[in-house]
Each structure stands twice: as C-alpha cells, then as structure tokens.
Amino acid sequence: MPEVIPGPLAGLRIFDLTRVLAGPSCVQILGDLGADVIKVERPGLGDDTRKFGPPFVKDPDGNETSESGYYLTANRNKRSITLNLTSEEGQALARRMIAKCDILVENFKVGNLAKYGLSYDDLKDEFPSLVYCSITGFGQTGPMAAQPGYDFMAQGMGGLMSITGEKDREPQRVGVPIADLTAGLWAAISINAALRHREITGEGQQIDISLLDTQISTLSIQGLNYLTSGEVPGLLGNAHPNIVPYQVFPTSDGNVIISVGNDSQFERFCEFIERPELSSDERFTTNDMRVRNRDELTEILNAVTEQEPTDYWLDGLDKIKIASGPINRIDQAFANPQVLAREMEIEMNHPAAGDKPVKMIGSPIKMSATPVSYRRTPPMLGEHTDEVLGELLDLSPEDCAALRDKSVI
Predict the structure, then answer these.
(1) Separation CA 156–CA 149 (nearest Å)
(2) 266 to 212, 234, 293, 316: CA distances (angstroms)
(3) Using alpha carbons only, what angle is made at residue 367 by residues 363 and 370, rounded to the nearest 5 degrees?
(4) What values do phi and psi take at 248, rounded to 5?
(5) Residue 234: exposed, middle, or buried by beta-carbon count in 10 A (0-12, 13-18, 19+)?
(6) Three-state DSSP class for residue 104
(7) Taking 60 as the threshold, does the pLDDT of residue 234 lie above it?
C-alpha cells in the first residue's frame, strides 16, 4: 500500500453525532483531511441512510446487503460505535469520550440533545476547549428554530426552486441535495476556523449552521440581482441571468453548452457561425443589450446551432477559444479522461462486499504537502465499538459485553 501522509487534521478527534447527509458530509471532509472520526449510531438501527436504497452493496454472491450507496456517499474515514443515548449509562459514556475529543458535530433538532445532557450549554463549562458544531434546518435562533428542516424544504423556502427549471413549467429542485451539501461545506469551513481560534486563545465555541441560511447564501448573483434591482428573478432554464449567450443550445444530434463571456468573444463567435452582422446589430453589440434582448438572440442562435452536430461545435469553438461543453450522462462524466486523471472515482475494500472493492467518489481536495487519504472504508454498524471504548476509556471486552447485555451499546 502507498504511504499514508498524515493529513493537516491528524491528531484531532471528532465525536460525530450526525446522520443522513449534511452532517456526515461535513465530517467526512474532516476525516479525509486526517481527523479521527468516531461515528455514534443507534444500536440495532444506525444511520437512517444505511437503508436508503436501492442500490445496495452486493456481497460476493451478488446478493444485496444492508449497506446502501447513499450511506457510502458520506461515511468513509470514520469508526462506527453504537451507543444508546437515551440511557443514563450511555450518556455518561458519551461524556467520557467527549472529554477525549476536540470537536463534536451534531444535527439533532434544536433542544433534543439537552434531553441527554449533551447540548452545548451542558458541555461548554466542563469542556471549554471543545469545538461544538450544530447543523439544523433553521438554526438555533429565530421563530422556526424548533422545526425540523430537510433539503427539499430548504431549496423551496430558500428561493432556489423558483429559479430552477424551464419557463412555463413547474419549479424544480436541484438533482442532488444541494442544501445539505452546502451546509456540510460551510460547517467544515467553520470548524477549521474555530480550530484556528482555539489554537490562538485556547477557547472552543459553538458553530450554528442552518440549511436555510446556507441555501440563501447560495442564491449568490440571483439574490443580489433581486436586492439590487427589486425585480424578482424567475425561471430561466439553462440560461445565465447576466450573460448572453451563455446556455444550452440545440444541435443536430443533441445539445451543447456555449458560454460567450464578453463582447470580443461574441464577435469571434459570430464570425465562426458566419453571422458577423450579429455583433454589430445594435440589439446585440454589448452584453447589456444581449441580456435585454435575450429571447430574440436565442431564437436566432438556436436556428444556427441545430444545423450541425455537437462535436462540430465543441471542436470549432475550442479552436477559437470560446468555452463550450457537452451535457454528459453520469456514466460519461465518470469516464471523462480528466475526471479519471484527477482520481475522482476511487475504490475501497468493503466488508459487506467480502472485502472486495466498492466504487466511491473521491475528494476534490488536492494538496501538495498533505493530500487527503482514504484510510477507512465506510464502517459497518458498530464495527469499532469495542475498539474505541477500549482505546478511549480502557474498557475490556468483558466490560463491553456487559454494556451490550444492558443495551447501552
């Protein structure tokens, strides 16, 4: 096996009380960067996503196991323990382990961990250096704080669906849980900032990440277009709100993305499509005018691009330095030589598959001195319970067996 270079977060330990996607994706990023992650799951049940399928990992005989592709998405580089937090003994064990951890990440509903004595207020005085990250639907404050929140709700309430989809059709959610994933990213960024603060001051703190907040933040230019103009954006399909032409165009055998970023590029583009008069047409001479006359220009260009196949446009536009691209299916995306070269598809041996390789998506983080490492496959439920309790709390196998008999672990 290749040498594993210690990541920048090596030596840090995370008590992971997250499940589903936003929290687990955050913690997986930190695990990829070297942190030791202890994933705490419910005895006998575990993370809900273990059952979010099909598809499921198949055993050596081709039979489906209980490990879903969804679960594999966000749970590598973690050790799984089972712990019954509803029991007083389980809560006591949790606190003893938290004492050995640097970071706690949780995505319980606001107030739920207080029932078990594990809220930030319960822990902050006893563990003043603990970085405690809470990820919820609506945050720790505000009139909706106590309500459950999910990705779909955040996409709808946060305005994203109102700008996603074709004109005169119903609004659409993004094809992946983008609110969950961006919340996980913001949480990981915030944790690293809090660790730097702790390094300087010795103080921990609570991080409050909301799916709705992060979804509002990703409105980006569309949100600022509204705040600047007072005009509410609508459905534009694949068109860019502020740049024209910058969208999907039909070809004789499919579709192509064409992105013309400025006026000089538009002039070159018009020369290439043998319509040079368009760049001097007062309706289209500047990007400002092209945005205002979007529909007229789009109709003209659609009639041009549909005359030739996709490869014609990809090859020709590349030669004149105009950005263009295909619309790949997911299988085509993973087969792309650039994706392969960047090692965005990886394999890890998994016990559910008989320790044979299962495919997963690699990390996009590329660091020259401390690259990410894939040390642990997404764990089976409770796979490391005895190991972690022995390592952190010096419990013997007999101690663990007794706790298991009492349904504490």
Answers:
(1) 11
(2) 38, 25, 14, 14
(3) 100
(4) -90, 135
(5) exposed
(6) strand
(7) yes
Percent of the chain with pLDDT over 70: 99
pTM (predicted TM-score): 0.92
Q: What is the pLDDT of residue 167?
A: 87
pLDDT at 4: 64
Mean pLDDT of 267-286: 96
Rounded CA-CA distance 167/171 in Å is 9
Determine the Cα–Cα distance for residues 132 and 190; give it in Å rounded to an integer. 10
Nearest to 355 by CA among 344, 343, 347, 345: 347
CB 194 within 8 A of CB 131: yes
Whether cis (ω within 30° of 0) applies to the bond prior to 54 is yes
What are the E-state strand segments in 267-316?
Answer: none
The pLDDT tens digits of the residues spanning 152-174 come to: 999 999 999 999 999 889 999 99
Is domain 13-218+344-405 annotated with CATH 3.40.50.10540?
A: yes
173-201 mean pLDDT: 97
In which region does residue 347 sit, left (phi positive, over 0), alpha (psi from -120 to 50) or beta (all else)?
A: beta
Q: Single out the residue of 153, 145, 79 nearest to residue 112, CA to CA.
A: 145
Class of residue 113 by CB neighbours under 10 A (exposed 0-12, middle 13-18, buried 19+): buried
Q: Are 150 and 137 in contact (CB under 8 A)?
A: yes
Domain spans in the chain, listed from the N-terminal domain onward = 13-218+344-405, 246-328
CA 392 to chain centre: 30
Q: What pLDDT, on the 0 to 100 scale, is given for residue 1? A: 43
pLDDT at 315 exceeding the cut of 50? yes
Q: Which residues are catalytic?
A: 180
Which residue type is seen at 207?
I
Question: At residue 2, does pLDDT exceed 60?
Answer: no
**Using CA atoms, how far apart are residues 310 and 326, in angstroms rounded to an integer?**
8
CATH code, 246-328: 3.30.1540.10
